[in-house]
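quick one before i forget lol
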Amino acid sequence: MLIVMRHNASTEDVDSVLSVIREMGYEGRPIPGKQRVAIGLIGNDGKVNSGRLVALAGVLEVIPVTQPYKQVSREWREDSTVIELANGTVIGGRGVVLVAGPCSVESEEQILSVARSLKRAGVTVLRGGAFKPRTSPYAL
């Protein structure tokens, strides 16, 4: 993560940002430039609250340097993740896997009926919602 300071940010502003970065459990490295200072945040584990930094005096913007969800991105691991289920279905390979099921499981009879129908249709992975929040308790 890169914290870009305003061109008129004071030394105290930079020191304050560095202090907050340390409080958050990370290391900050000032990068002095011709017109402004940037601060590199070292040790970003993906949980940095950038809102806390952008609100500080002298901060112009906070720029993420790594991709979101980096631990599941190609940046973190180049090889595809392939999972083989007990029924032989391979997820993450070259084939398309169709996962289907009801939005909400209403009863044992309902889910078993849906499972049988989907199996006949060639579906190999069943899913069913166990919780479905509604906008109103009276909604259908």
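fyi The CA atoms of residues 47 and 62 lie 14 Å apart.
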